[in-house]
Amino acid sequence: MTTIPVEMVMAKKERFERGADRRSADFHEQLFALEDAGELIVQRVPDNNVVVNTKYGVPKKIPRAHLWHHKSCGQCGHIPGYSTSIFWIMRKLGYDYEDPKDQTSCTAWNYYASATSNQAAQAAVALRNFAAAYETGYFPLIHCGTSYGHYKEVRSELLHQPELRTKVRKVLERLGKPMVLPEEIVHYSEYLFALRDEIKQHQVRDFSGIGVTVHPACHYYKLVEGDAIFDPDIYQGQRTAVVTGLAQTLGADVREYSTWFDCCGFGFRHILVQRDFTRSFATMRKIEVMKEEANPDVVLTHDTGCVTTLDKSQFAAQAHDRNVGVPVMSEAQFAALAMGAHPFKVCQLHWHSANYRPLLEKMGIDWEAAWAEFQSDVARLERGEQQYLTWEDVGV
Amino acid sequence: MGTATATDPYRKVQDVAGFADVPLKEKQRLVDQVVADPRFEEYLYGCYECGICVAACPSARFYDFSPRRVAQAAARRDVELMYQQMQEDIWECSQCFSCLRCPRGNNPGGIITVMREVAVNNGLASAREALEGYSRIIYKIMSTGTQVSPDMLQPDAFPDWGPEVADVSEHLELWRRALPPETHHTTKTGWAVAEKTLIELYLIWLETGALDMINQVDEGLHMILEEVMEERLEEEGIEV
Fold it and tell me: For the domain B3-129, what is the CATH code?
C-alpha cells in the first residue's frame, strides 16, 4: 500500500545527487592528522569488514567480527530482547565479540534531558569508553542511536577544539587511559545492514507477507548526518538505508507513510517526567498515521528510545479510542525472528506492550507453545536447577 | 499567548512565564555565557525565516515553542527574549535535532542544549522546575553509570505503559536471570558495570565540574552524590 508517490516523483529525476555546498566535510583527514601529530590514537577498523556508502558518498568500513559491544541503557534495562537479539545474531553468524563490564552509558540521554553535564564531561565519558574498547583490542559497536549520534558530536568537537582536547587529555591522564578515537563510529543497525545478505542466508521463516513501516531514528541520521548509511537503491538514496534495507532483504513488505521524518516523541526528559507530550506525539503523528496510510503488521526502528516510545505510548491511547494497536520492535529482533530465534527466550517480547501475538502468528510462530517453553525454562530457574538461561539454551 | 508590547510581538507577557524579572545586566551575563560556549558559533549562521525547523519540530506541535524563534533571538542577541526562553521555552525542546534540517546549517536544538547548560549552571528557576521529579534519574546515571534500570519498571511509576509493566515487576528477578547475556542479570542497573569503571566515572564527574552543576539545581541530591563518590574514591585511596 503506497500513499506517497515516491517512485513517480523520483522517476522524474535522472539521478539524485546532493550539491557540494550541502555536504558536510569528511572527518577522516583531520582524525589521521591528529594521530600523525601524536595527539591521539586512531583505532582501525579490523580488516574483516564490509564497505558501505554514506550520505555524501564517503565509504564507511563496517567490521564483521571482533566487536566490543557498547550497550544501551534503555535496551538493557527495559527492552532486553533488543540487545540479546544483537548478540544472538552475531553468535549465529559465527563472529566473535566482547560484552564488557568496563563500559558506562554514554550518559547522553541524561545530558539531552537535563543538561546536568558539560562538554568536557561528555567527551571524557566517550573517550573513557573508547579507551576501554581499545585496551581489549576489540572494535566498538554502538547499540544506542543516541550514543552513536552523541559520540559523533563529541568526535567533531574534539577534532575542531584544541582546548577541549587538552581538558579531556588531562582527565584521561588521571584515569591512566590513552586518548583514542575509532576510525569509524559504527551503529549496530549499520552492522545488520552491511551483513544483511549473510543474515538472509540464515533465514528460516518466510516474511514475505509481513507489512512493515520503518521509523528512522533522529539521532542516527540527523546528528552529524555525514556518517549515516545511504544507498542509491533504497529510497533512491534520499533517506537512510538501514532498517529498510534489512527488512527488504528479508522479504518483508516495507510500506510508506507520510510522517517518516517526524521524531517518535521520546523527548529524553519528556519520556520520564512529561509523558503526556510523548504519548500524544507518538500516537497522533506516528502510529495513527502509519495505521491509516500503511496498516503495517509491525513497526521497525533502530533505537532504544524509539522502540520504547512507539510501543509504550499505545496503551493509554486505547482508552481514548485512538487508532492504535501495532507491535513495535527493533529490526534486530525482527531479523533474529527471521533467523529462527525464540520470541521469548531471545527476543524477550513479553517486555513489550503493544500486542505482538497476531504478528507472531503471521510469521508462522505458535506463540502459545513458545510461551510455554519459556515458562518451563523459568520454572527450572525458579527451582534452582539452573541459575541463568544460557546461550546454549537458545541454540547459539 | 499574550504579548509584552506592541513593538515586540515575540515576547510573552512576563506573568505568562511566571518567573521573577531580573535586571538587564543579569540577563546579559547569562546570554554572554551562552555566546561564549565554543559550540555556539558552529550552531548559528543566520536565518532565512523559512520555518523548516518549525515544520520539523515535534515540540512546536504541542507547545507554544518555536526553534525559529530561538535561532532568531540568538542571532539578534536579543537579551530579553533569550532570557525568557531560558526561563521557559528551552525545556520544551525534544532534543531530537530534526531542526538540523535547516538550509542555513543552523542547529537550534544545539543552541538550546547550551542555553540549558547555562540555566543549570546558574540555578535558574526553570531548570529547577523542569528537573523536579527527575532527581532519581540523575542519581542513577551519575552513581551507577547507567540511565535506567529494570527495577524502575514499577506499575505505579508507569501506569500508562500497560499491564506488562506489572508482569515485569512481579517476575523481575527471574526474568532477568532468563536473559542469556552474562552482563544482563542485574535488576538495579541496565548491565553489570565493573567497580573500576565506576571509579573512573566518578573521577570524570569530579574533574570536569559536572558534579558541581548538580548543586545549582538540587542541593540535597548533590550532597548525596558527593558523599557516595568521595567515600568510594577514598576507599580506593584516591585523593579527591
Answer: 1.10.1060
